[in-house]
């Protein structure tokens, strides 16, 4: 599996696996171990979490599996996130869900993630969403402390605009290693508004969340999704892909920003399809054909 260099001492697998939906898969601890081992065998070594996934339970499920087989940890990179505060019966009461990038929240969230994931360190911590009240001085202090204590090795962001990214970066000693963004053939906005260009400008490799539109691409009957699905089927036939999801992955992988798609399926055969898409080759014409199906018109 191709590796992507995010920093001198950090590489990710080109295909990442995301654990947002882990609790929905109803796997036993042993099945989670098997799932992780199978991903590693396929070369998928980077796993994406967030404190809030599964109503604050997914990290724990993953950690229970790691506790059964601790040797797995050294062969993987763990990404997790903080900064969203969800209303949840197991959390202190709050009136609504909101964002918190205060130093106290970041540091306590990391301590909780470490405990749940049963690990001593997080490879990359992301601020999950831009907090309108973000004080970059506080975030920088939190990052400095977490790095100095060895709890977090690298930092990044998710869903940040270019200016939000630059603002935070200007206060940090270390480079932000990624911006995790919603990128897919069905969601072209961030290619158009300069967010992906900004990553390329700063040599920052984006992680792509919901690369299959969260599964909507397979079921949605909107005009756009039907049009896109038909085009994806035509292209799949043309390039010898076994499914439209492979074409969706190949579309992201062809972009020169070195996008790392995060596969979100709980089915190993679907993770394997993502991995196999690395060997597919789209032509520029295919790429633009898919873009046209997404935006509903030819480029000018
Ligand atoms: N930073 C953020 O704000 C943010 C937001 C959302 C997600 N994420 C990250 O991105 C990861 C991936 O997101 P995602 O789960 O939305 O990714 P996705 O790959 O776009 O969607 C996964 C969903 O599609 C379904 N699916 C896949 N192939 C299918 C097929 N051939 N037919 C029907 N359904 C199919 C999967 O079901 P099966 O499990 O049954 O295959 C699963 O429910 C998450 O796990 C999380 O780590 C980050």
TrEMBL record:
Residues 14-290 form the NADP-dependent oxidoreductase domain. Keywords: NADP, Oxidoreductase. CDD domains: AKR_BsYcsN_EcYdhF-like (cd19092). GO terms for cellular component: cytosol. InterPro entries: AKR_Detox_Biosynth, NAD(P)_OxRdtase_dom_sf, NADP_OxRdtase_dom. GO terms for molecular function: oxidoreductase activity. It comes from the Bacteria. Belongs to the aldo/keto reductase family. Aldo/keto reductase 2 subfamily. This is Aldo/keto reductase family oxidoreductase. The lineage of its organism: Bacteria, Bacillati, Bacillota, Bacilli, Bacillales.
């Amino acid at each position: 599996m191709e590796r992507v260099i995010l920093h001198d001492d950090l590489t990710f697998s080109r295909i990442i696996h995301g654990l947002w939906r882990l609790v929905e898969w109803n796997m036993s601890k042993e099945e989670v171990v098997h799932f992780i081992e199978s991903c590693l065998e396929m070369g998928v070594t980077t796993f994406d979490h967030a404190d809030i996934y599964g109503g604050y339970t997914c990290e724990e499920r993953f950690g229970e599996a790691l506790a059964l087989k601790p040797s797995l940890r050294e062969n993987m990179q763990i990404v997790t996130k903080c900064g969203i505060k969800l209303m949840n019966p197991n959390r202190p009461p709050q009136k609504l869900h909101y964002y918190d990038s205060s130093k106290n929240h970041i540091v306590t969230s990391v301590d909780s993630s470490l405990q749940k994931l049963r690990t001593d360190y997080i490879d990359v911590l992301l601020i999950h969403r831009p907090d309108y009240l973000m004080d970059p001085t506080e975030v920088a202090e939190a990052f400095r402390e977490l790095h100095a204590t060895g709890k977090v090795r690298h930092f990044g962001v998710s869903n940040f605009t270019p200016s939000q990214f630059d603002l935070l970066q200007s206060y940090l000693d270390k480079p932000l290693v990624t911006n995790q963004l919603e990128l897919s053939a069905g969601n072209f906005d961030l290619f158009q508004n300069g967010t992906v260009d900004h990553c390329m400008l700063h040599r920052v490799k984006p992680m792509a969340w919901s690369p299959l539109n969260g599964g909507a691409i397979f079921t949605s009957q909107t005009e756009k999704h039907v049009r896109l699905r038909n085009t994806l089927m035509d292209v799949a036939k043309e390039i010898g892909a076994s499914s439209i999801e492979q074409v969706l992955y190949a579309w992201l992988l062809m972009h020169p920003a070195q996008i790392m798609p995060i596969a979100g399926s709980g089915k190993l055969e679907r993770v394997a399809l993502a991995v196999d898409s690395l060997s597919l080759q789209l032509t520029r014409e295919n790429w633009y054909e898919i873009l046209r199906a997404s935006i509903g018109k030819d480029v000018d």
